[in-house]
Design goal:
Blueprint lengths: L20 H52 L11 H7 L3 E7 L5 E6 L35 E3 L10 E4 L18 E2 L6
C-alpha cells in the first residue's frame, strides 16, 4: 500500500460552491408564491381601475344630461334606443341663446358640445373618429354599451344611466342593493 503522504497535500472540494437541488426548489417555490401574490394584487388593481373608469363615464354622462336639461328644460331624448342618443345630443355643437333682442327674440350663437367624448368611451370601428353627427354607442371598460332610460325607473325625476358591469348583464337594484352594475342612482361603490 502506498502512503498518502507521497501524493502531496490533500485537495478538498471548496465549500459553498453551488446550490443543492433542495435549495433550488425552495427558492423557485418562494419566487412562485411571490409572483402569484403579485398577480392577484395586479388583477385587483385593474378591476378597481375599470370600476373607477365606468363610474367616471356614468357620472360624466349624468352631469352632461343635467346640463342639457338646464339648457333645454328636458333631458336628452331616448329616440335611438341606446346610448347613441347621448352621443348624438350631448356630443355635437349646439345653438344657445346668448341674449334677447328688444323685440324679445333670442340671439343664438354656436356653442361647443356639452361633453367632449374621449375616444375610449365610444365603440368606434377601426379608423373611425368620434363624430356626433354619426353617433355610436358609448361603451364601458368591458366593451358593453352604457344604458340610458328616460324617464328613469330608479331616478324618478331624472334619467337612469348605468353600465352593466364586468358580467355584462343588467342586475339592476334599488340604492343599497348588491350589484356589479355602475348606476347613477347608486352613489357609493
Amino acid at each position: 500500500m502506498r502512503d498518502r503522504s507521497d501524493r502531496g497535500p490533500v485537495r478538498r472540494r471548496p465549500c459553498g460552491g453551488g446550490f443543492t437541488l433542495v435549495e433550488l426548489i425552495v427558492v423557485i417555490a418562494i419566487i412562485t408564491i411571490l409572483m402569484s401574490l403579485l398577480a392577484v394584487f395586479i388583477v385587483g388593481v385593474m378591476e378597481r381601475a375599470q370600476n373607477a373608469k365606468a363610474k367616471a363615464i356614468v357620472d360624466g354622462l349624468d352631469k352632461a344630461c343635467q346640463t342639457y336639461r338646464m339648457e333645454y328644460n328636458v333631458y336628452p331624448p331616448n329616440d335611438k334606443g341606446d346610448s347613441r342618443n347621448l352621443h348624438y345630443y350631448l356630443g355635437r355643437d349646439r345653438k344657445v341663446s346668448k341674449a334677447k333682442r328688444e323685440d324679445g327674440t333670442s340671439i343664438m350663437v354656436n356653442a361647443p358640445p356639452i361633453i367632449m367624448f374621449p375616444q375610449d368611451w365610444l365603440k368606434l370601428s377601426k379608423g373611425q373618429t368620434a363624430d356626433a353627427t354619426q353617433p355610436v354607442p358609448i361603451v364601458d371598460p368591458w366593451d358593453s354599451p352604457v344604458r340610458y332610460l328616460l324617464p328613469g325607473k330608479y331616478n324618478q325625476k331624472g334619467v337612469d344611466i348605468w353600465s352593466p358591469g364586468k358580467n355584462g348583464k343588467d342586475d339592476l337594484v334599488d340604492a343599497g342593493g348588491e350589484t356589479d352594475d355602475i348606476c347613477n342612482w347608486i352613489k357609493e361603490y
